[in-house]
Amino acid sequence: MATKQTSRRILTALAAAMAALIFAAILLAIQPPRILDPATPEGTAQGYYQAINDGDQEAALAYLDADLVQRCDQYALYYRFGNREDASISVVILTTEIDGNKASVDVRVTENYGGEPFGGGTYRHDETLQMERRGDRWMILGVPWPWDPYMCDVEK
Predict the structure, then answer these.
(1) How far apart are CA 107 and CA 104, in angstroms?
(2) Is the pLDDT at 77 greater than 70, yes or no?
(3) What is the pTM of this model?
(4) Which of 29, 25, 49, 45 is nearest to 37 (CA)?
(5) Which structural domain range is residue 4 located in?
């Protein structure tokens, strides 16, 4: 009789522990991403890719060096990503290196596209954003994804 009560208590404790773990996992999964300080290279990368994901081309351009904006074809950016309502991205910051007023931020971009449940797809790629501090902001210098070098006159 004592072993049945002990077994029942153990099973009840295990069930309660599993329920608590599942609840904690759900809470973690539904939390919004942490907003990084926009005055840091990481915050600049986050803001840029959030603007790309939102389809806000004007906000995305605000993170780029003014000379780069003039050299890149904004219509090509819109055509490449901004007009795809069935697309989204997620970005993970891998590493950041800061050397004085220069920074390099390595990110992993996951593109999700297509309809569910059978028409969708996922593509992952790593990108590096080269930045320079300008006053209290970090500006992206190189041609960042989703632009390709052919979209920008990099010779000027």
Answers:
(1) 10
(2) no
(3) 0.72
(4) 45
(5) 1-31
